[in-house]
Amino acid sequence: MNAPGTDAPDTRSRRERWAMPIVFVTMLIDFAGYTLLVPLLPTFAKKLHATPFEIGLIVTVYALTQLIFLPLWGWASDRLGRRPAILGSLAGTTIAYGVLIYAVHIESMTWVYLSRVMAGFFAASLGTAQAVVTDLTPPSQRARGMGVLGAAMGIGFVIGPALGGILGKDDIRIPFAFVMLVSSLNFSAAFFMLPESRAGDRAPWRARELVRLLVPTPVRVLLADHGRRVGIYLYLFFHLFAAFAVLESMFALFLLDRFDADARAAGFVFAWIGIWMALTQGWLLGRLSPLAGEWNLAIGGLFIQAAGMAVIPFLHSLDGIYLLAPVVAIGNGLSFPSLASLYSKACKTGQAGELLAQSQSMITTGRIVGPMWGGYTMGNFGGWLAPRLPEGMRIGGLEPEVFSLGACFLIAGLLTLVAIVILVAARSTLQPDRLE
């Protein structure tokens, strides 16, 4: 018998104890691999002679493929088992980064897009990683298990850009080779140590079932019969991430064109943003939420984020970027978790899992649209604006062509303000039970 106050002995097998570290590293690879690419996008533009719109598509095709195949991976893990799905994801990720290295070597955007399609396809197994945690943790420890995955995502978003900038300073293939190596090592560990947390049912399947799974989730969301309250929230998730994804995809290219910041400098800027976002969500949000409430934090955070993004095109130095970055990060760190919490309260208990998954699909859809319109604006707005201004006119002390490089961030800030207007106008629907 255990002494009072002591923890019960860990009766899990050695393979079960390896499961969480392997899943953690799998999630870390996916998110670090995604963000690692961000500071290197300007180098792609130079080396492969790509336009800003084509650079935006590098981010878009990844998110689009992930969105389409996410339900399929969930189906495969239920039918074939969690272990084959995780092993397939790691093996495929390793191959995808090998293809990306080859694409850079031969300087082919077509092969770059193919590699990102492959990476998005195999990263769509993230739901399987969450399922493994659900299988292996009792309900009393479920939040802790999911917190481990959340930590992997947060760490990935911080270290990914820094690694990309540092390792890719002289040769952008080096960071991809690093991810390829880590993924292959994790595959080896998973192959020998990852247990099967839920064996597949191997039940017969129909072609119609598979076709239904490949219908993009946003299409199914639009066709679903949602109440007005849930529908407004779902639209807002799409709207806000269609704006914020511009910062994720175009900011590194902006830093290069405006301030001649190389991949290393851009990587440090993104890591700086990630640190402030982590501090906001991990420390500041918990202290402000009881005082201000989720609604006020959502509105206030969105306003801070909107103001920060709108100021970006008017900055004249990289020092200004470092001063402004915490503003955008704090606004984002306060607003999105608060909005997600408000939405979760709008979901009926019996439909919470499905509706929360649908919110993630709308966020991903925003990440598909944002890089496309942001890249097109960065590449074309200056040519449209300059002839329409009086000769010699400057905007914020900048030439129109220079200002236009950051115009997409100003537009994104304005779109965020529009979202605030929608929130305020629909408050009686979104918060019907609030105290008057």
Describe the overall structure.
By secondary structure, the protein is mainly α. It folds into 2 domains: 12-191 and 208-215, Growth Hormone, Chain: A; 216-429, MFS general substrate transporter like domains (Growth Hormone, Chain: A, Up-down Bundle), CATH 1.20.1250. The chain is 78% helix and 0% strand. The chain has 18 helices and no strands. Helix 3 packs parallel to helix 5 (109-123) and helix 6 packs antiparallel against helix 7 (142-167). The longest helix is centred in the last third of the chain and has 34 residues, at 352-385. It is globular, with a radius of gyration of 22 Å.
Q: Which structural class is indicated by helix and strand composition?
A: mainly alpha
> What is the helix content?
over 70%
Which regions contain 5 or more consecutive residues with pLDDT less than 50? 1-9
* CATH superfamily descriptor of the largest domain: MFS general substrate transporter like domains
Mean pLDDT: 83
- Say what the CATH topology of the largest domain is: Growth Hormone, Chain: A
What amount of the residues lies in strands? under 5%
Q: Summarize the main sheet.
A: none
Shape designation: globular
Give me the Rg, rounded.
Answer: 22 Å
Supply the number of helical segments.
18
Q: Regarding CATH, which class of the largest domain?
A: Mainly Alpha
Q: Give the CATH architecture of the largest domain.
A: Up-down Bundle
Q: What count of structural domains?
A: 2
Element order, helices and strands? HHHHHHHHHHHHHHHHHH
